[in-house]
Structure formats: C-alpha cells, structure tokens
Write a structure and sequence with these properties.
The chain is of the alpha/beta class. Helix content is 29%, strand content 24%. It is built from ten helices and 14 strands. Helix 4 packs parallel to helix 5. The radius of gyration is 20 Å and the shape is globular. The two termini are 17 Å apart.
Length: 378
C-alpha cells in the first residue's frame, strides 16, 4: 500500500490584505516572468473583476518593460526580488520555468506574500512539502496553479459525485497530448530536470483521482512509457485507490499522456449508477455530461454548460487561457478572507499529485522508485 499522510488543516491566516484593501478594491498581482504563460495570466487578470496586475519582473529589464507596456502594467522590474518586496503587490504569481518555481516560491513565502505557483509547484515531492511547511509556519497563502479545479464544471462534477448520483465510482479514464516541438532542442519541454510530458500535462490527469475518490487512499502507481531526448515522452499510467470500507472495490484512475500527438483530451468517470464526461478539452471544462444508467445500453443524459466569457483578445499562447479568471477569482476571495489554502485545490491535493508524478517519472525514465511505505507528506 502506498501511504500518504495528509497535512493538518490549515489555520486561518492572521496576515490579511491591508485595511484599505476592501472587497470593493482590486487584489494587486505581481508577476514573476515575462514568458508565454505569464502573458496569458496577465491577460486573464485584465478580464477579472476585482483584480489588477500591478507589477511584473523579468531577468531582462527591457523585456519586463515591454511586457508591462503590452499588458497595461504600471511597474516593471529587472529583479524578481523587487516584485516580492513591493508594497503595491498583494499576491505573487510565479510563472517562471518549472525549474525555478521552488527557489522563488521560497523567497515569496519568506517575505509573507500570498503566492500562486504555476504548476508544477516544484519538481519533486520533498520540495513541495518544504514549501507547504514554510507557508504553514508563516501563516501565508500558497496555491499550486491547478486552475482546472476552479472551473464551474469541475465544481458541479464534485458535487454530483458527493451526492451519490453516480453511485460508487469504479474508474476514471482520460487522455491529454500535444505535439512537442521536436525541431526545437532548447525548448523548456526538453529540460532534463523540469521537462517531459508528466510534469507538463500529466498532472491534469493525475489530479482527477482525488476528485473521483475524495475519501479513497492512494494505494499504488504503475506506469510505463517511452523516453525521448532524456525525458518522458509518452506515458500510460494506472493509479489505484483503496477505501476504508473493505467491502468497496478499489477505484482506478487510468490515463495516457503524450508529446507525440494532439489527442482528444476527454475525461470519463464511471460509477455504478452512471457516468460523467468532461468534454474536450477537459482541462478547460465548459461542458459536463451526466449519463444516468437506465439498463444495459440505455442512459438518460443531462448536460451542464458553463461557457467561457466573451474573449476580448482572441489570441492566446495556450488554448482556453481566459479560463485563468476562475482561479484568479478564487485566489482573491481566499486572500481577502485570510485563508492559507484554496478550497478547490488544497495543499493535500498538491502533495498527492506530486507523489504520483514522482512515481511516474521514476518508473518511465528508469530511475530509482520512492520507498512507497514512507511519505514526505507529513
């Protein structure tokens, strides 16, 4: 059995926004990075009520200045430290390449800044645990940017599963793939430490286990796959969850992720009384379909639509990125309320996914697997 010890519930933070920062005034975001995903995030902030981007930093001051001009940001810096220490920043968003997430998240949390770290939070479970411990010690908000969890369709799915409408969940199946730039050897996707398909998109599939089996215990992770240029390129994984009630069958999460092809990207959760489907692309879910079992081969369908808002930009670096506004809203609300975690994606969620990802990467790349009888999630 794979043991995962959960963190204690987070305390309500004593560090709140300054008294002048009322609910009617915007939460001010500071952005670390002037890269592609940071650009999408800055755009999403502009369409989010109650939020503004007040500062951006890049290691090249000229690039930061250009980014600020493009996105209507008043202040730019050539040092990440300047954003972190700025009194005009309420929340820090870390959109650097993944190999720098841990380093700058530590700096932000030590400064007492509420912090959102683009996924993956770190490159390994032990580092994720260290950041969470630091956030707890400093009573400071910390969230890994698993924005998919903040979409209304995902909230509705979790509500339906909790209601028992689908019965006992038996298994989940999902896929996610996009064609990696094989002609660009210096692209961040090929970085030996932080690249590969699992850290890039496998997390979207791995996080579904906690949605489907909210009361289950992580039991086993099995993965196989291919390696290209030293990183995991295509992966098939099966994750098993067990229940406290021994009469309940183990639950299974199975998914395929690849950098070799653009896949359908659909998710199905099958229960004993019906199934739920998040239509493609499931990581930016706009439609949830529920099929209630009416007998073999017969179902009754109920459809829930949650369209994205009108898009004033049209062009994004990553499809559906306007959906970041759901996460931006939830973070703003949590910080105003003095919380240290986001309800939609908690510290325990990050720890479990980090453990799954560690196992998959180790198994596919042929490294030494973790001791599954122990856990850093304490």
């Amino acid at each position: 059995m794979l043991q995962l010890f959960r963190t204690a519930p987070a305390m309500m933070a004593t560090r709140r926004l300054c008294s002048s920062q009322s609910i009617n005034n915007p939460v001010k975001w500071g952005i670390l990075s002037a890269g592609r995903i940071a650009s999408d995030y800055a755009k999403a902030i502009t369409v989010t009520d109650g939020a503004i981007a007040s500062a951006v930093a890049a290691r090249c001051p000229t690039k930061a200045k250009e980014f600020a001009a493009l996105h209507g940001i008043t202040t730019s810096y050539g040092s990440y430290h300047d954003v972190i220490k700025s009194p005009d920043v309420d929340v820090v968003y870390i959109g650097t390449t993944a190999d720098h997430h841990f380093e700058w998240a530590k700096q932000s949390l030590r400064a007492g800044k509420p912090t959102v770290v683009e996924k993956p939070m770190t490159l390994r479970l032990s580092d994720t645990q260290e950041l969470i411990d630091l956030a707890r010690e400093n009573n400071t908000f910390l969230m890994e940017g698993m924005w998919t969890r903040c979409f209304p369709a995902m909230h509705k799915l979790r509500q339906i599963i909790a209601s028992g409408e689908l019965g006992q969940i038996v298994y989940c199946q999902g896929d996610f793939g996009w064609k990696f730039p094989t002609d660009q050897p210096n692209d961040r996707i090929w970085y030996k430490e932080s690249g590969g398909v699992t850290l890039d998109i496998g997390m979207y599939c791995a996080q579904i286990g906690r949605v489907a089996f909210p009361n289950g215990q992580l039991k086993d992770v099995r993965a196989t796959g291919t390696v290209k240029n030293g990183v995991d390129f295509s992966v098939m994984a099966t994750v098993t969850y067990q229940h406290d009630d021994e009469t309940v069958e183990d639950g299974l999460l199975q998914f395929a992720v690849t950098g070799a092809a653009n896949t359908e990207e659909r998710l199905v959760i099958q229960g004993t009384k019906g199934r739920a489907t998040l239509d493609a692309p499931f990581h930016v879910p706009e439609r949830l379909r529920i099929h209630k079992d009416q007998g073999r081969g017969e179902t009754e369908e109920v459809v829930y639509d949650y369209p994205l808002p009108n898009d004033p930009f049209g062009v994004w670096n990553n499809p559906g990125s306007i959906g970041f506004f759901h996460q931006i809203n939830e973070v703003g609300k949590a910080v105003r309320e003095g919380k240290t975690e986001c309800d939609s994606y908690t510290w325990n969620d990050s720890l479990e996914v980090a453990l799954i990802v560690d196992e998959i990467v180790d198994q596919v790349r042929g490294g030494e697997s973790n001791d599954l009888t122990k856990s850093a999630c304490q």
